[in-house]
Amino acid sequence: MTELPREALAPALSSQVRLCASAEDPSQALPRSLRWLRQVWEAGEDHVPLLLVHDLGHLLLHGQAFRFASGAQLASWPESLRALRLAYEDRVLGAWSMDPGVTRLHVTLAGLSGSARDAAIAHALVLGLAAVLRDVDDLPRGNPAHLRGADGLLVALTQDEPDEDWDVWARALLARIVERLQRHPRLFSEQDLWEVEHLDQLPNDSARLSLRQLHAMADQIGDLPTGSVMWVRRSSRLVVVEDEDAGSYPTGGFDAVATRGSFENLVRSEISYVGVGSEELQGLDLFDVRFIEGELLYYTRDQSPALDAVRTLQVVIHRPAELRVKHRALAAQTLVVVTALLRVLHHDLLRSFGTAGVHTRVIWWTESTQDQAVAEEERRLLAHSVSAEVAHRRLELADTRDLEEISARGRVVLSPQAPASKVEGLWCRVDEPVWRCQGAHVPEWTVDASSPDALRALATSILLDFVG
Three-state DSSP class for 108? Predict the structure, then answer.
């Protein structure tokens, strides 16, 4: 990539403006586009061209109301340029206009105004365009200082006469862009969309980077497979949830009848239909007919309300300051991996038992002032990621100075140390890339934290241990 000198900035940008796919009046649209361009370049992504900043920015701004230049200007386009410009409109911007992510961002931006909207659009442009354009050959690099110091730049962009050499350069630039971007009809990941939607809550790059790493790690670990979800649900019904009052509830009896059930629960009077029939049934008896039609009656078992009690998983993060370590084998800091794991566990529980059946407590076990400071930072950060769960009281963020204050029931400890005494619940030592886990009733096993599949297996093991 080559940097555009100050004297080349105006003709380079002017030649790009003449190729824009937006039908917006340049005198009205360019001031906003230049503000977006300056913010994008100041973010360090100075290879993103004005052409794309202008068009994608206004597509995000206007949504379905975005108007393509070909609608009014097609007849005036030179024949040699028409195919390229139509390809840009159809294969690039046309594909983006049908992207659900772009529509979702447009709705988000509609709720903002003024500088907040411009900042959100510029951030979305960085997220959507910067990485995908980074390996395009010969993209010119701009200097944001030139945008700040060029008082007459807007006049030059709207009034300069075309320059043939720069127009040829801009057409070659557009051709490379079309070649690259037509293979990327979707620009924004789920993390990108979430980040733009919560931009006002994440004002600094450090917080955004931390949450991006957290969400990426959680995505790598992945969801509990559907088959495992069903198996967990069935397994959880085999053992009554431990409860002080469980013995007072009726269990094992029958409370109603239904047309679905197992044969051992068949209503005894249904046997009377065996052998009963008529000539119209062509040799079948009424029992067979009722079975085929699903009309046989079965007793339904009365189940203890303890089985439907809210299940509380307690994830304890011990000495968080010591977990802010980046091992070469891991994709992120140990604390980020641990936090991603607990986020996955909570999501697994929601899928398995529904929003009304689970409650997750995230507890930072602190032993020093440094631990307390880190725990407070992590609490604020995680609260952004799981704000809806916290608001609905499905997830609780807390801290403690004494593990004895936390019940051993449903407890998982993630610590840089080995347990000091007999393990209650589940304990994972996470100070190395290979974690060592042990439970009260299971032998110690190891987990390669650098492998998303191994972390997924650990999450499943924790879930199965939790449901008994």
Answer: helix
